[in-house]
């Protein structure tokens, strides 16, 4: 009972857990196309598999957020570790759609538990510097995407299968599990401040909080939806589709490392407004440019989405603190739930666009599996070149709406919370 909280160790372990979380996104993004070939899956079916991770996430993050103060952070982190390991092993041993579906669901649950614990944990450990430290913690989401993307790129080019790529995630998972084992965790900020459970749930009806949850649907889809599908959508537009994800993630990691002065200079809502404008420009350019110029578009897009997720969490922690751990969990869960709904729709739209650029009555699976050098393979590649950017053009309206919403919020906050 006298054990002290090792803040630095808990923070590092949290970052490692987030690295595993984000590696699952990067490696899955890199192997989606190969899964379609290996198991004869349509793009819509791949969308259901990818989206399943986003179902498990809100399920775990919402339930986990409600349980943080009841069973404690440590037990929930043990559950996250167990779910990560079992989900990764199940994916490696998968034999088709349903085994991939349920193993991805379990990984999504693990990812949600990491967010459910680590966000309130960091807010509790750094109460005077919440937005900046949450940005520093979330460096390791794009950081993990870089690691996972490079693993997928180099192992894939070396002819090493996706099963081995998945297995690499067991290394950081084992390290964070060992680091968390036996550590003392603090109580959440809400408990430390004496805010009752009833008051916490009542605070969830705060109009400002509800507004931010709605905006989170758009910020999450803009960031994660684009990053998760970029390898598929731009596969035949550029020779380096997966490296685009690595490039975007690298910029995001650097940007989040500089979050302190950026947030201090612009305020959280100012950061969100500028981010939505840049995300709009970047996403539009990604849908219109090709070749190496895509990296210019990707750079603008990356700067735009860099601060979305952690600044949304930081805003809630700073301006609606009574919502507590459940408030942070719900807004994160809402973002992932939006992606779980959007991914199959995105996959269906992509299949429809592909069909429109193929001969009438063509079976996509037949063209997808056509041997290289054949006329069918060439037609399929050309259809991909046209279909992917069309999806990105459709998505541009989301950050446009966010720009309007955050513009209104900016003027509201200037009036209601004058500095």
Output the keywords.
single chain, 419 residues, mainly alpha, 82% helix, globular
The CATH architecture can be given as Up-down Bundle
Summed up, the helix count is 20
Our count of domains comes out at 1
Give helix % range. over 70%
Query: Could you state the oligomeric state of the chains shown?
Result: single chain
Order of helices and strands: HHHHHHHHHHHHHHHHHHHH
Structure characterization notes:
With 419 residues, the chain is mainly α. The chain has one domain (7-416): MFS general substrate transporter like domains (Growth Hormone, Chain: A), CATH 1.20.1250. The chain is 82% helix and 0% strand. The protein contains 20 helices and no strands. The chain has helices at residues 7-39, 43-71, 73-92, 97-125, 130-137, 140-157, 162-167, 170-180, 189-192, 197-203, 207-233, 241-257, 259-266, 268-288, 293-305, 308-319, 324-356, 364-368, 375-395, 397-416. Helix 3 runs antiparallel to helix 4 (97-125) and helix 16 packs antiparallel against helix 17 (324-356). The longest helix is centred in the first third of the chain and has 33 residues, at 7-39. The protein is globular, with a radius of gyration of 21 Å.
């Amino acid at each position: 009972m006298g054990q002290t909280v090792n803040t630095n160790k808990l923070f590092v372990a949290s970052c490692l857990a987030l690295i595993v979380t984000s590696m699952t996104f990067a490696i899955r993004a890199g192997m989606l196309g190969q899964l379609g070939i290996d198991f004869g899956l349509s793009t819509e079916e791949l969308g259901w598999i990818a989206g399943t991770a986003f179902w498990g996430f809100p399920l775990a993050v919402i339930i986990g957020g409600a349980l943080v103060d009841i069973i404690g952070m440590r037990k929930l982190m043990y559950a996250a570790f167990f779910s990560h390991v079992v989900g990764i092993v199940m994916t490696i041993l998968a034999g088709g759609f349903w085994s991939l579906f349920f193993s991805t669901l379990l990984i999504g649950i693990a990812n949600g538990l990491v967010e459910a614990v680590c966000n309130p944990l960091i807010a509790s450990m750094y109460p005077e510097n919440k937005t900046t430290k949450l940005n520093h913690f979330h460096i390791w989401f794009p950081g993990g995407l870089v690691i996972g993307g490079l693993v997928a790129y180099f192992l894939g080019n070396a002819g090493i299968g996706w099963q081995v790529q998945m297995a690499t995630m067991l290394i950081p998972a084992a390290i964070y599990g060992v680091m968390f084992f036996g550590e003392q965790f603090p109580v959440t900020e809400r408990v430390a401040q004496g805010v009752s459970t009833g008051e916490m749930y009542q605070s969830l009806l705060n109009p400002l909080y509800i507004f931010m949850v709605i905006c989170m649907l758009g910020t999450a889809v803009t960031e994660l939806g684009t990053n998760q599908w970029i390898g598929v959508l731009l596969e035949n537009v550029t020779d380096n589709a997966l490296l685009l994800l690595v490039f975007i993630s690298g910029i995001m990691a650097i940007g989040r490392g500089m979050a302190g002065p950026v947030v201090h200079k612009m305020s959280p809502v100012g950061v969100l407004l500028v981010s939505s404008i840049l995300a709009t420009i970047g996403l539009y350019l990604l849908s219109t440019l090709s070749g190496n110029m895509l990296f210019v578009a990707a750079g603008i897009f990356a700067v735009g989405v860099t601060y979305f997720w952690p600044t949304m969490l930081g805003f809630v922690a700073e301006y609606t603190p009574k919502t507590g751990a459940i408030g942070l969990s719900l807004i994160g869960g809402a973002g992932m739930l939006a992606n779980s709904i959007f991914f199959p729709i995105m996959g269906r739209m992509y299949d429809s666009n592909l069909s429109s650029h193929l001969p009438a009555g063509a079976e996509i699976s037949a063209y997808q599996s056509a041997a290289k050098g054949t006329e069918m393979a060439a037609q399929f590649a050309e259809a991909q070149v046209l279909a992917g950017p069309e999806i990105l053009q459709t998505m541009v309206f989301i950050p446009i709406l966010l720009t309007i919403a955050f513009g209104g919020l900016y003027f509201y906050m200037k009036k209601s919370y004058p500095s």
